[in-house]
From TrEMBL:
<keyword id="KW-0808">Transferase</keyword>
<keyword id="KW-0865">Zymogen</keyword>
<dbReference type="InterPro" id="IPR000101">
    <property type="entry name" value="GGT_peptidase"/>
</dbReference>
<comment type="pathway">
    <text>Sulfur metabolism; glutathione metabolism.</text>
</comment>
<feature type="signal peptide">
    <location>
        <begin position="1"/>
        <end position="28"/>
    </location>
</feature>
<dbReference type="InterPro" id="IPR052896">
    <property type="entry name" value="GGT-like_enzyme"/>
</dbReference>
<dbReference type="InterPro" id="IPR029055">
    <property type="entry name" value="Ntn_hydrolases_N"/>
</dbReference>
<dbReference type="InterPro" id="IPR043138">
    <property type="entry name" value="GGT_lsub"/>
</dbReference>
<keyword id="KW-0378">Hydrolase</keyword>
<comment type="subunit">
    <text>This enzyme consists of two polypeptide chains, which are synthesized in precursor form from a single polypeptide.</text>
</comment>
<keyword id="KW-0012">Acyltransferase</keyword>
<keyword id="KW-0317">Glutathione biosynthesis</keyword>
<dbReference type="InterPro" id="IPR043137">
    <property type="entry name" value="GGT_ssub_C"/>
</dbReference>
<keyword id="KW-0732">Signal</keyword>
<comment type="similarity">
    <text>Belongs to the gamma-glutamyltransferase family.</text>
</comment>
<protein>
    <recommendedName>
        <fullName>Glutathione hydrolase proenzyme</fullName>
        <ecNumber>2.3.2.2</ecNumber>
        <ecNumber>3.4.19.13</ecNumber>
    </recommendedName>
</protein>
<dbReference type="Pfam" id="PF01019">
    <property type="entry name" value="G_glu_transpept"/>
</dbReference>
Amino acid sequence: MIGRLKSVKSLLAGLAFPFVLFSAGANAYDRVAGEGFASRSQALATNGMAATSQPLATQIALDILKQGGSAVDAAIAANAAQGLMEPTGCGIGGDLFAIVWDAKSEKLYGLNASGRSPKSLPFSYFAENGLDRIPSHGPLPVSVPGAVDGWYELHEKFGRLPMSDVLQPAISYAEKGFPVTQLVAYYWDRSVPRLQKFPGFRQTFMPNGRAPREGEIFRNPRLAKTYKRIAEGGRDAFYRGDIAREIAAYMKANGGFLSLEDLASHESEWVDPVATNYRGYDVWELPPNGQGIAALQILNILEGYDLARMGRTSPEYVHLFTEAKKLAFEDRAKWYADPAFNQIPVKELISKGYAAERRKLIDPGRATRRYDAGNPALKHGDTIYLTVADAEGNMVSLIQSNYRGMGSGMTPGELGFILQDRGEMFSLREGHFNQYQPGKRPFHTIIPAFVTKEGKPYLSFGVMGGATQPQMHAQIVINMVDFGLNVQEAGDAPRILHSGSSQPTDEVMEDGGYLSLEDGFPMETRRKLVQMGHQVRFASGPFGGYQAIMRSADGVYHGASESRKDGHAAGY
C-alpha cells in the first residue's frame, strides 16, 4: 500500500500541469468563454427582459410584456407573485422602493413607498416597558405596509394594463399552487421556530404543521382572496376598506398599535434620485430614509485610486474598499433617517470634495479600528429585488421587503400575508436623527439602483441583503467599470463583505469590524489582510442577491441573475 501511494505521488509530481482544487462556491465553474467563475452567460434579448429571484416570477413578467404591458406592469405582476412564492423576503405586508427610467421623457423617477410608525405608539413606551431597543418580532416593530400603495403609484404613472390583469397570474398561482424553490424552503424552515407562536402564522404558512419543503406544492387561498379584493377595489381596499379594518382589528387584539387611521393616512412619495459620476458613469440611488447614498460615498472615495492596476482580488483593493465602506457607514449611522424629521445633508455627503477629505483618513497599509462620522457643512436651502425592461426602452429597478426573515410574524386573520418588522430599525437614543417618533419612517436598508451613461440608460440593478446592499452596489459598478466584467460576471465574481460597522440603531464600531471573503480570493490576499490588521473570518455570507439588466447602445438587453439564489433572467 505504501509503495502504491509513493507511485501515485511520483506520477502527480511528474505531470506537466498543476492540479488546482476548487471549492464548490460561486467560482467553481469551467467555461470555454468568459471568466471561469461565471455561473452562466448573460441572457440577451431585444423586445423585453426580466430578472427576478424566482424563475416563475420572471416568466410572469415576460408574459405581461407579451400581452402589451409596460415594464412597470410586468414588475408589479412579478412582485405580486414573489409575495406568494417568496414570503421569506417580501410581501404586501412590507415596503417598496423603485427607480424607473421613462423612455418617453428620457428621465429617471424615484418612488419611496415606505410606511410610517404608528401614531399612537409614543417614544416613552419603550423605556416605560424596560426596552432599550425595539424588538425584532411581534407587534412593536410593525409599521404601515407601503407596497400596495407603491404598486398603484407606479401603475398610475407608467402602467398600461388593468390591475386586474396584472395581478391575475399571482392570484392563479395562489389558488392552484406552485413548487417551493430551494433557498426559499431553507429560509422558510428557519423562520418557523421564531414565528409559529404568532396568531395566524401557522394557519397560513405551515401546511401539515411545518414549513413546505423544496419541490412541495404550496397554496395560499387567503392571499388569492386578498389580491382579488385589491384588484377590484384598488388601494382603498387595502388602506381604507375591509383589509385595513381586518389589519387594525388584528393588531389591537394582539397588543399592537397600528390603527385604521395609520393605514388610511398613508401615502407614498415621489422623490428625485441622486447620483455621483464614477469614471464617466452616473450611478443613481434614492436619498434617505434609505441607505443608497452609502454606495455613492464608497465610490467617491475609491475613485481616487487606480483599482484596475491593483486587481480585483488583491489585498490592496480589498483593504481600500473595506476602509471606504467603514467611512461611509459611519455617516450612514449618524445622518441617514427620515428627511421629513431632519435636514439630511445629502448633497454634501455625496460631494467629491467631502470624499477627498474622508479619503485622507485611510491608512493605505493598515486597517483602522474606529472612524468617526464626518461633519459635512449643512447649507440651508431577508428582501427581493427585480428589474424589468420593455421594448420601448422603459426600465424598472424595484426592491421590496418585509425586512427581517419573513417579517414580524404578525399574520392578520384570513389575509394570507405577514406584516413587516421594519420598525426595528429605529434608534431609541434621544436626539438621534433616526430616533423613534410616531408617524415617522424608519431607516431603511432596501435600495434599488440605476446607472446612466451620457444621459442614456445603461444598467438597472440591485443586490438584496441588509447592510450588504451598498457594499455590493459599489462592487458591481467597480467590477464592470474598473475590472471589465460583463453584467453576469460582475454579479458572480467573489464578493467582499465587511460587517461590524456603526449602525443607525446605536451600535458603535470600536474594533474595526471583520471581513468575510467569498471563495476565489487567494490565501495570499487573506494572509496579507490579516497582517494589515483586518479580522478575516470564513463565513457563508450573507453576500447578497443580485439581478440586473444592462442596455447596450444598440438596444440589446443583457440580463443577469444571482447564482447564489434561485433566480432567473430571461428575455424575448
